[in-house]
Amino acid sequence: MNEPRTPPPSPAQPSLTERRKAATQLDIARAAMELFTEKGPDGTTAEEIARGAGVALRTFYRYFRNKQDAVGPLLASGGDRWRALLAATKPGTPLPQALESAAAATLSPPDEAAEEALLGTRTLLRAAQDDPALRAVWYRVNQESEEQLLAVVTHLAGPDADPLETRLTAAAATDAIRVALELWATTDAPTSGPNSPASLAIRGLRHLKAGTAG
Questions:
Q1: Mean pLDDT of the region 60-89
Q2: What is the largest CA-CA distance in the chain?
């Protein structure tokens, strides 16, 4: 009989300083997103982003290396939600099912604000096609997400899981979501229904599952 798994330790609550820092970063990221949507990365300056966020230029550079880096928190937010949903998975849920359910929930916007955020991601991914610096931010965000996902996958897979398999699962699942979003960004498909991000991600994850079955 399998021993019940001990839930992963809850992360320490951020301090007031850390919460303020995160809030400032998000304000800057949103200002950058608005300007990129209106003018594109090439037509936007760091000074304009700082002004839009209501912060000094030196504050901008305290948090971000360049204007493209400023949208990193927004690009990372989906992965943050996905991992949180996975970590809350009911014990005993098969890992492929947990990955699929969390992906579907993360990529299915429940309200207008979430839909606008997803459409904003499409705008950024389209811009990244011609902006190497923005593309590098997207790849970095995905690499960091994969590294953080590994701990969640390892916990869900259990203590007897093969470390090679858990690493490959974390890498493949991250790439399935990334490819789904990138492919969706090349189309005008809506945020729900066929060819939506959730639909494409589920297809990708099921393809991976079929490829590793047997």
A1: 96
A2: 62
